[in-house]
User: Fold this.
Amino acid sequence: MTDEQTNIENQEEQTTREDVKEEKTLLQEAESQASRLEAANAKTEELLQRQEKIAMQNMLGGRSEAGMQPAPVVPETDEEYTARFESGQVDLLK
Assistant:
């Protein structure tokens, strides 16, 4: 075997080692990203469950808008309106 053939084989061996190292780093990076994604999914699931629980409490606790009746409108006489206007209780921008 000549020196040239030995050099070529050494270069091929070195290239193969670099490829293996690169594959390991890519694999480690993919595993790291996968674990971060799993953690984010778990957190999202936890937040979704909390939101569902809050929505259920609002519906059952009487705080939802369903079934609520608006306050009845009490008719106001002109004299009552004038008194409120003079005392500054009337909002003219409404």
The first helix runs from residue 3 to 60. Helices lie at 3-60, 78-87. Residues 3-67 form one domain. The chain has a mean pLDDT of 81.
